[in-house]
Design goal:
The protein has helices at residues 18-38, 43-51, 70-83, 85-104, 109-121, 250-274, 288-316, 326-348, 358-366, 376-388; strands spanning 125-129, 147-150, 154-164, 170-179, 186-192, 198-201, 215-225, 229-231. The protein is of the alpha+beta class. The chain has three domains: 18-123, Acyl-CoA dehydrogenase/oxidase, N-terminal domain (Butyryl-Coa Dehydrogenase, subunit A, domain 1, Orthogonal Bundle); 129-231, Butyryl-CoA Dehydrogenase, subunit A, domain 2 (Beta Barrel), CATH 2.40.110.10; 247-388, Butyryl-CoA Dehydrogenase, subunit A, domain 3 (Up-down Bundle). Strands 1, 2, 3, 4, 5, 6, 7 and 8 form an eight-stranded mixed sheet that branches. A hairpin with a 6-residue loop joins strand 4 and strand 5. 45% of the residues are buried.
Length: 392
């Protein structure tokens, strides 16, 4: 393991107090609507997250980082998601990459040291680029078509990927590819974002998380040094994709959508307190119907937060069986977050579906929780088999 030295800068320790996270949410929320409209990279939100040290919260202590645990990381992502979920998604991917490096330490020392130094100066983002046009999501199985060809100095990378969140803002790509060796190997290749042959395609035109810049990207004979290959070993001759395995990091992406539900609660309350129909003569917030709707929204958020934070506490206590149930927990949190937002929208009708109303954006954004692995059908199938055949 690499020891801390003068080569590693000391990164900012994030303030995870309720006051600090609320201020972070408020700052991101001031620009979220504009980035949603334009689809531009949410620079202001990313810079705000960087200033507070939230983008590097998972960098290991031996690399000069704060090395925050899953509970604090999830709280950060809830706060980011409540302010701007596109920023939160980019941040979640970046934090996950640093978490893996903290655990495995696979990056070449100087390359990772350079990334940490960049991260001390400004947002230096990393994401794993995996999905492909023909294959789809790797968590469903299969091997990549993107190929790394052996050269005298390392590798040449060729292929096209879809859904590369972060787009041109990424400092490094971790590109999932297969080697041309016999037998082949599979893993992630560290590619600097400004490498010759990296070509972005502006394909992202999505319902939600519009500022996440989740575009397609091609790699045309991209030169990669020998040491930039992070191999994922086959297990007994079978490739088992890491994305198909659940762990505490599984809840990171889910957490940001709990933040979206919280933002929807705020938007619903603000509308209800100021909407005064002429026939009623008082704010609709004073009616029992709207109060009951607010109670349903609150109950769904309580459910989501209790599952999210409670599961992390149980994992920390090493309770048996909890890790195996993480896919089901993800499904239930996602359902609760979606229900909270849909309940608010249904109660307000057309007003909530108008682009000037924040609830329209929150509805679009929260629906994106379903695409993150493990997806609902996969999680339910695994849970059902475990329940019916517990000894297998």
């Amino acid at each position: 393991m690499t020891a801390v030295s003068s080569d590693w800068p000391t990164l900012t320790v994030p303030d995870t107090s309720h006051v600090a996270l609320a201020a972070l949410t408020a700052e991101l929320a001031t620009t979220a609507v504009d980035y949603d409209r334009t689809g531009n990279i949410p620079i202001a939100g990313l810079q705000a997250a960087h200033r507070g040290g939230y983008l590097t919260a998972t960098v290991a202590a031996r690399f000069g980082g704060p090395e925050l645990g899953p509970f604090d990381v999830v709280r950060i992502l809830v706060a980011l998601g409540e302010g701007d979920p596109s920023v939160a998604l980019i941040a979640a991917n970046n934090l996950a990459a640093h978490q893996v490096q903290a655990k495995n330490g696979q990056w070449p020392d100087e390359l990772y040291a350079d990334l940490v130094r960049q991260s001390a100066r400004g947002p230096a983002l990393v994401n794993v680029i995996r999905a492909e046009p023909e294959l789809g999501a790797p968590a469903r199985g299969g091997l990549p078509a993107t190929i790394a060809l052996r050269t005298a100095t390392g590798w040449t990378l060729k292929g096209r990927k879809t859904f590369g969140t972060g787009g041109r803002a990424l400092a490094h790509h971790l590109v999932w590819a297969i080697t041309d060796e016999t037998p082949p190997r599979v893993g992630h290749f560290i590619v600097p974002g400004d490498s010759k042959g990296v070509i972005w395609h502006d394909t992202w035109d999505h319902l939600g998380l519009r500022a996440s810049n989740t575009h397609d990207v091609s790699y045309h004979d991209v030169a990669v040094p020998e040491g930039n290959f992070l191999e994922i070993p086959f297990q007994n001759g079978v490739y088992r994709d890491p994305a198909a395995t659940s762990g505490p990091a599984t809840l990171g992406h889910t957490a940001l959508y709990v933040g979206v539900a919280r933002a929807a609660r705020t938007a619903f309350g603000a509308f209800a307190r100021t909407r005064v129909p002429s026939a009623l003569g008082r704010p609709i917030a004073e009616t029992e119907r709207i109060q009951a709707v607010a109670g349903e929204i609150e109950s769904q958020i309580v459910q989501a937060e209790t599952l999210l934070y409670g599961t992390l506490h149980r994992l920390a206590a090493d309770e048996p069986g909890v890790a195996q149930r993480l896919p089901s927990v993800k499904v239930l949190i996602a359902r609760a977050a979606i229900t909270a937002v849909e309940t608010a929208v249904a109660a307000l009708g057309n007003a909530a579906l108008t682009r000037s109303n924040p609830l329209e954006r929150h509805l679009r954004d929260v629906l994106c929780v379903r695409v993150h692995p493990p997806q609902e059908d996969t999680a339910l199938l695994a849970a059902g088999r475990a329940s019916l055949f517990p000894d297998n």
